[in-house]
Amino acid sequence: MELLVATHNQHKKIEIQQILGKEFTVKSLTNYGIYDEIVEDGHSFEDNALIKARFCYEKTGIPSLGDDSGLVVEALDGRPGIYSARYAGNHDFEKNIAKVLLELEGQKNRKAFFTTVLCYYDQNGPKFFEGIINGNILEENRGHKGFGYDPVFVPDGYKITFAEMSPKDKNQISHRKRAMDKFLEFL
Ligand code: ITT
């Protein structure tokens, strides 16, 4: 089955392909030559996942999947949350991490979670699937794999960050995997 994922983020696309395996061919907006900037002006992960999936479905007529995800830090009242991609600099992972670490300086409560909300949009309208993984934020970066906030996030039950894990290991436990499992069950 071919699946159109409403994303310009190649890291997400690759993770989704790895999670789904060979039975699926994952295509992103880039593969379809769609370079429009999708304005994510929603107030929740659900809103933004819907905006992406609906845009893509209306543009192509192909059933589409939107992934809106982010890091939610307890001591920061849930920030960066829906602003995770552009917290300090637009898709500048280093600057975004630096801002979170600065805001957490001296803070003992390092609890956080990653969340993914998937919106699947076809002729029947939208369906939503959510996945969460709890963990803690380190005081400095560790590891070079993954993307985004992976170098500072240690999932509960582990001693290494997402950026120190193999992609295979991350993709077995991640927020994205948990949301994708619910989506697959629905399919
Ligand atoms: P699209 O909107 O084109 O899909 P995006 O990167 O802008 O790509 P989001 O708006 O959903 O996507 O923002 C997600 C941000 O949250 C992402 O840029 C990372 O900073 C962070 N993030 C999401 N999933 C992550 C993961 O698995 N590991 C680390 N950081 C992640």
Description:
With 187 residues, this protein is of the alpha/beta class. The protein has one domain (2-186): Alpha-Beta Complex (Maf protein), CATH 3.90.950. It has five helices and six strands, in the order E-H-E-H-E-H-E-E-E-H-H. It has helices at 10-20, 45-60, 93-103, 167-173, 175-186; strands spanning 2-5, 25-28, 64-73, 111-122, 125-137, 153-155. A six-stranded mixed β-sheet has the order 2-1-3-4-5-6. Helix 1 (10-20) links the parallel strand 1 (2-5) and strand 2. Bound molecules: inosine 5'-triphosphate.
Secondary-structure blueprint:
Layout: E1 2-5, H1 10-20, E2 25-28, H2 45-60, E3 64-73, H3 93-103, E4 111-122, E5 125-137, E6 153-155, H4 167-173, H5 175-186
Parallel strand pairs: 1-2, 1-3
Antiparallel strand pairs: 3-4, 4-5, 5-6
Bound molecules: inosine 5'-triphosphate.
Residues 7-9, 12, 40, 67-71, 84-85, 91, 96, 114, 146-150, 162, 174, 176 line the site of inosine 5'-triphosphate.
Gross morphology is: globular
Series of secondary-structure elements, N-terminal to C-terminal: EHEHEHEEEHH
Proportion of residues in helical segments: 25-40%
Q: Can you summarize the main beta sheet?
A: 6 strands, mixed
Query: Which consecutive residue ranges, at least 5 long each, have pLDDT under 50?
Result: none
- The count of strands amounts to 6
Bound heterogens, unique = inosine 5'-triphosphate
Task: Please report the number of helical segments.
Answer: 5
Seen as an oligomer or otherwise, the chain set is single chain
Q: How much is the average pLDDT?
A: 96
Strand content: 15-25%
State the distance separating the first and last CA atoms.
Answer: 11 Å
Judged by helices, strands and strand pairing, the structural class is alpha/beta
What do we call the CATH topology?
A: Maf protein
